[in-house]
Specification:
mainly alpha, 0% strand, globular
Length: 156
């Protein structure tokens, strides 16, 4: 599984890039009451992004730069849509961190598990409900994994 760790770390990094971008959109549209939550999530994802850049380098990879912009999964005209986007970002992060947990060992596995837990908790906070197994939701065959050739590199 060692040969799968670098691609999983790169996928997590790509998801963190998208989350940082997405939380910029969330912050612009979210209600004043939830602005601190959005800022805390934005800061957490920036820290995770920076840590993953180091992880990719430690695994022998070369961290790519973030895209200039990312395609949103749906329009975000108001605070309700911003909260839905935040929950969607966290769900997607939970999925890539679940993959990283599966292929990592020791401290990297612990870090990935912590990131998965944090994403699941934030998703519940934004959505108001949770799922039984965060990060393990079934993927549809119509949606290619984010790191596959069929997935756009700038999709959230």
């Amino acid at each position: 599984m060692k040969d799968q760790e670098l691609p999983a770390a790169e996928a997590a990094l790509a998801a963190e890039y998208a989350a940082v971008y997405g939380y910029g959109v969330v912050g612009a549209r979210i209600s004043a009451a939830r602005r601190k939550d959005a800022q805390a999530a934005y800061d957490a994802h920036r820290a995770r992004r920076d840590a993953l850049r180091r992880t990719v380098r430690d695994l022998g990879g070369r961290p790519p730069a973030a895209a200039a912009a990312y395609e949103l999964p749906f329009p975000v005209p108001d605070a309700a849509a911003a909260a839905r986007l935040a929950a969607e970002l966290e769900d997607r992060l939970a999925a890539v961190y679940a993959d990283l947990v599966r292929v990592s060992e020791k401290s990297r596995r612990l870090d990935a598990a912590a990131a998965l837990r944090e994403a699941a908790v934030r998703a519940v906070s934004w959505r108001g409900s949770g799922v039984a197994f965060p990060g393990l939701a079934e993927r549809t065959t119509a949606d290619p994994p984010p790191d596959s050739p069929g997935a756009p590199s700038n999709a959230l």
